[in-house]
Amino acid sequence: MIVLRTLAPQTLALGVTATALLIGCGDVTVPEGTSESTSGSSGSGSASGGGGGGGQGWTTPACASVSGTAAVTFTLDEGATLTPTTQSLQGLGYTYGLVALDAPNTLVAEHQGQIIRSTDAGCTWSSLGAVASPLTLRAAPGGIAYAYQDNSSPLYRVEGTTITKLTAPVDGILGLGVDAGKSAHLRLGDAFGGLWDSTDAGATWMPNGVPAPVGSGPLVYRYGFDPGALDHVVVGSATSGAHVSTDGGMTWKASTGLGAHSVNVFTVVISPKDGDVVWAQGIDLDHSNDPGSSGRTIWRSTDGGLSFTAVVTQTPEIVLRNQELLAAHPTDPSVLYFVFGTYFQGYGTDIYRYDQATGKVTTTHNNYNDVSALAFSPGDAKVMYLGLTSDAVN
After folding, report:
1. In the structure, what pLDDT confidence band is assigned to residue 277 with cuts at 50, 70 and 90?
2. 328 vs 67, 153, 199, 270, CA distance in Å?
């Protein structure tokens, strides 16, 4: 059994210094290779198949290797095998930003300060220009992508081959949503629970609604915006769990089921297929000293985030980190992907798949240091694109 010392949350909101907010940043055990495990309760969640919209013109990648970048690859079997890249990752770099657009076969990503784009379903990539790094990306209708630096102010619009630098209304962006019916309508969340609106593609901004009741000071970790309904947003925060709004921040309700008293909710994602399904990941601080789990949990909601049920807890085979990458399946709201990866002792990366229908977590493994972003082909959800991380021991 290998034990690691992990770092504090990568994007902890500015000013959050209380020890309780950092619980869980101590020992983490590298899993020992179990491929299937049962965790949490299976519940009664719904499953839906079929294709999603927006995939017109998309094809399966017709290449045996990826060229032009080493930062992005793809898999057709949920990470069991990854398509090789003709280049190698160099230095320290993260690919937090990776999106598949509604323009046929077009993806956009950011790695080591370069916006890169592919127009052949991820086979070949070229650079569009230099930006701040690292960036998180969000897709918008009309083949547009927006990019922002988490817990900071750099903000960009990528349209075709043009990168436009925008001025953010706040110093700390902790989430960005796009209106599914209008690419110029954006909403972002700040470190104090406030929402900001733009109706001109990010050129100007106005505050929207009232701040979520997350306590005094910047205590927000992450916003999850509903891909199908911009007014629906769930915000995860330090110690106070999560709050949900369905009217664009005009009113807020506290989420239940996350823990009896104090909970850190690091990550929130809303299903693209069913906005009632919300996934959250964090630490139940009342159980932070529990052997094995340390209170680390993934919760699931079927009422838009008003109430949650624990579905996955940390085990020797399943590692949950602060602000874990969560990727909701685009057409099946019962399925969630999450990852654990590290360069330590050449461990590589586990890609976990949780299925609410069975209550089980299955695992695939690859030799890359980490996967920091995951996107699905709009034409076929079996095609998964992975943003890769380059790490090294200092």
Report:
1. very high
2. 27, 26, 27, 7
